[in-house]
Amino acid sequence: MDYQRFEPEGWVEVSEKLNKNSLKDAFNTGKILQGFVDRCDENYNLHICLGNEITGVIPRDELDAINMDENGLCKPNICKNKVNRYVQFKVKEICNDNKVILSRKDVGQEALKWVKNDLKQGMIVNGIVNNIRQYGAFVEIGGGIVGLLHIEDISVSRIKSPEERLSVGQKIKVMIKLIDSENNKVVLSYKELLGNWEENIQEFDEKMIVKGTIKETDKYKNGIFIELKPNLVGLAEYKEGFHYGQKVDVYIKKIIKDRKKIKLLIV
What we know:
The structure is a single chain. Helices cover about 10% and strands about 40% of the residues. By secondary structure, it is mainly beta. It has three domains: about 10-110, CATH 2.40.50.140; about 120-195, CATH 2.40.50.140; about 200-265, CATH 2.40.50.140. The strands form three sheets. Strands 2-3-4-6-5 form a five-stranded mixed beta barrel. The chain has a five-stranded mixed beta barrel with strand order 7-8-9-11-10. The protein has a five-stranded mixed barrel with strand order 12-13-14-16-15. β1, α1 and β2 (about 35-40) form a beta-alpha-beta unit. The chain is elongated and about 70 Å long.
């Protein structure tokens, strides 16, 4: 079973389409919804506008299935960090005063079962980048399950920071690289989904002039490595005055397919 970020058939984002009838349907069927967190109150409950003057509340004890303190409550910093972000939840109770009690923990518990029972290495799932560090990015793949995407697994060609490829809130597809079910940890990879050399070279021909990004300059090897696409790098003769990250126009002198090499000329 591939939940694809817990997006089963018929899932909906919170919008004007939701009303009491559709919320009752979600309650009866266990449908997973997704909505935008407006605020976190003084008791660390999250508030979500469900449309049609209906307010949804995720109580603190229904917020997380993983990051809990000794009292079984979600940690305050986790609660605050959900503001101005989308979260997934189930409808737990429909009140009579245009108020609905929601549970993100129920989705998280379902996600934990998914990780332990159904998630396999090599699977491709949808994710959202929710944090970036110098060493990599953290990507939520559904139900509060967050995987680590190391910087070396983001790109084949050299990058100095994950921010060269990714941004917080970006939706991406990732491959499951490693699963640690005992500790509920998932390691992800992104570079395999950017196309291989043979696929990426299809849009380039010899004698074309295209744009590229300098990834490495090596005076002693007499070369400048230039990225044409995230998984496609060519080599130009070394010249002074160029630096990492610089955008340049290059002339494709030679494509050597059997050696997967591209000879370039900076113009």
